[in-house]
Design goal:
heterotetramer, A alpha+beta (about 160), B mainly alpha (about 375), C mainly alpha (about 350), D alpha/beta (about 150), A: about 160 residues, alpha+beta, Alpha-Beta Plaits, 2 domains, 3 helices, 7 strands, about 25% helix, elongated, D: about 150 residues, alpha/beta, Beta Polymerase, domain 2, 5-stranded mixed sheet, about 20% helix, about 25% strand
Amino acid sequence: MFLKDYISDVYKGFTSLLKGMRKTGYYFTHSKEIITEQYPDNRATLKLADRFKGEVIMPHDQNNEHTCTGCTACELACPNGTIKIITKFDITPEGKKKKAIDAFIYRLEMCTLCNLCIAACPSDAIKMSPNFEHSVFDRSKLTKILNKPGSKIKEGIE
Amino acid sequence: MYNQTDIIKDTTDLGPDGELVVNMGPQHPATHGVLHLVVTLNGETIKKIEPHLGYIHRSIEKMCESLTYRQFIYVTSRMDYLSSHINNTACALLVEKGMQIEVPERAKVVRTILNELTRIASHELWIGAMAMDLGAFTPFFYAFREREMITDIMEDTCGARLTMNYIVPGGLMYDIHPDFQTKVKAFIKQFKEKVTEYEDLVTGNVIFQSRTKGVGVLTAKDAISYGCTGPVARASGVSCDIRKIAPYDAYDRVQFDEIIETAGDSFARYIVRVKEMNQSIRIIEQLIDNIPEGDFVGKTKNVLKLNKGEFYQRVETARGELGVYIVSEGATTPYRIKFRSPGFSNLSVLDHIAKGSKIGDLMATMGTLDLVIPDIDR
Amino acid sequence: MLSLENITKTTQEWLLTKFSPQMALTIECVIVILLCITLFAVLGLVLVLLERKVAARIQIRLGPNRVGPGGIFQTAADTLKLIMKEGLTPDSADKFLFNLAPFVVMMVAMLLLAPIAFAKNFQIWDINIGVLYISSVSSLSVIGILMAGWASNNKYSLLGAMRSGAQIVSYELSAGFAVLTIVVLTGSLRISDIVASQQNGWWLFKGHIPVIIAFILYIIAVTAETNRAPFDLAEAESELTAGFHTEYSGMKFALFFLAEYINIFIVCAIGATLFLGGWMPLHVGSWVGFNHFMDYIPSSVWFMGKTFFLIFLIMWFRWTFPRLRVDQLLNLEWKYLLPISLFNLLLVTVVAIMGWYF
Amino acid sequence: MTNEAIKEYITAHAPEATYDETGEWLNIVVEANQLKPLANVLYGQPMQLDFLFCLTCVDYKTQLTMVYHLTASTNRNMNIVIKVNLDRSNPVIETVLTIWRTAEFHEREVFEMFGVQFTNHPDLRKLILEDDFKGWPLRKDFEDPINMIKL
């Protein structure tokens, strides 16, 4: 009885090992199963999810106009002080003073990409961009001013 | 109940000479992160394990005291980063409970599906890492291949792969991706095909079985006393699934089994997790075709203020019971917040169950406790 | 025909015409040493690359593919890196033994090359106790490992070295018994005789059950003896970080690394010699045309082909199985492999005495 | 057991206990020296609250309040919260480690974060912070000049 158990032990152990080897052998011989993505080589064909949260950007249209009113809702919504808005007062042609942004400072190095600023924005002035290649040699380059120089607010946005 | 003198002996008895004190971690291949174990050895046999925590302590509880109820959710993704969706759900549920926000059905169902996907992803990673702890490298890659499909689904819908921050008080941050259902179905199909590979490579393997069976045995009494939850406690025969005890989101309308094993050893913990993945697939299959139409977020005020009082919300993460305890003074920020993390309690049992076994057993035991260090340190 | 046999013969004749016999022998020794070292370097580079490629294919990856076409210069680049690295010696280490250990391990591996028949009549030293020589010298490598583990003054290293000691001493037995099976059948310890006995068929393919069992035992035992997964307890990176070579860096680490692969090569070469006919080409019964065609393939290619097949087998093990625990490792040897080996030896002795073999 | 029955049962053992039912679960407030006997009572028959799933402390600026969340492993819907108010200048309380082993780590955490002294705790050392850390970080008056906490 003991001998029988002993032999069946050896047999079972042996077959279980062979089963595993069959599986790995299958993958060894089937090169189409390889899943490696050769990242820097496939940059041209890289398909990112359109919602991927890579960084915050401020879209500008062809007239170099954005829709940010400088309401600082995003600044308040941000959990770690990533966004700082510096406002100025523009003089409209009618001679009225109008609040506008001077600089929309965005610190990518502090950003956790939580999307709360975009959710808080009432005028859809900022959005997430799927760009993820952020590495730079100098950390100060990660502090960005999102509004382009000379841009102004789009007509009709309050 | 324990005898006071026994406990004191437990923690101070170092025994006669000849012991070797080895620092495992904070940089060690098997501690998965920055856990620091001071292991006292007698030859190969473990005499005492003393965890030293805090290498990734960020004082999340203190941080949350200065964050609003919308903001503090993102921090919780960084606790147990493998079940960040579930952590976020816990916080959102708590805020909803505190403010009586009505959550739309669509949001509830999507949350449940995402939570289960997160659970599968977490267990997949765990299987890979566990096999690697025991010296088998290859299952890690096979497990990650399936996990990659889940992270792709997450990326499509939530915009992030690990720290989603997709769940907000009242529902979801934005609606699910149009391809969500087809992608999830494709995942279920592939998962069912490939799950047998683990059977061949890991579960059935005689070496794996002999490494885990009878190793790190945790009795039901100790599991309860040490506050173990999740698969660790369920492998010891303790029923503790919060999804059954206090159903949240859409768990009250789906059929699934709570997996309970009685052996309490490392192999039982392994089996519980593997079977749990199949139950998660079952839950997703029931819900994926029945996502109700409608809003994805309920009506909430701009500024969230919890009612004065104390609130406690439990959810079942991949590692066990996550409790969020908030003391609110009626302000926009929590007065005191406490995260009862599953890993913290599960870690405390390590010394108890690994004592007297070999170094190799420590890897099996630690692996099956499924420790995520940021979750323990918070 | 240009073959290795002719080259050696002509070289020797040429040397004897130019120099005195003693001088010729000295020059031959120098040539052999240089060839050995070259073989070491080449084998190290090839085997490490092979391992990485095999691992990658099994793990559905591509593996090294950046340095050179298909990554073939990857290991050369790695070696360059290791040479450039600073070789640190821990402050409290036993400096002499610490620095000696890699060379001991390396020298043992080198000594083992002597009796291996790389091709027809191409052998450094056809000693009449070839098999005995191999099994006795190969057990010396544990000294280097113990030396490294002890001298490092590191607890992980010490644990790894102790495990390795226990492991190699036990598995030496099974490997020895497996080798003995073939010795019983051939009646000779000389490597060339063993190869010659497989003229009309390799031992493994002759269909003797004891030989098949011995082959399996041999593969398991030598996997353990060379500290390869699933028996890599001496290194066991998830338990002991790197085991006995935790404290080694730079070239000294590279020597350990190299010695591991050379050891694999050697045990596989011996396995090929004993069970798969060494440099003998594959002959099938009365298929004259087929046999004739097989003879055209050079004997060194046959030998290398068989050896690399066994090496691949051992790599396949490594990337499939989890690691055993230290007590299970010893259990496996003393409770399973040793009784089976003894029984097998008994069986083969009966077969040999009764003359039931061909 | 209903809340009324529980209250009745506890009053029989700890007459000074006060109750608060405004929250989700029944809160029991006791004095520090009564905690251990009460815990023993709750752990035993018939309540069998053998699962301490959360142990923490809250700094109310006037006092520290230890909060114990208890439940029964056989009946997870029976949840009880025990609260103990402690003197803020000298918070001392007896450990419940002998009843629920999970308290060992949780009490060490509370000790280092709030400075609550647990008597009879066999190994009351800092668990997360480094050993020479000064101050009790989760108290409301904790100021850290180096690491910014508030934005």
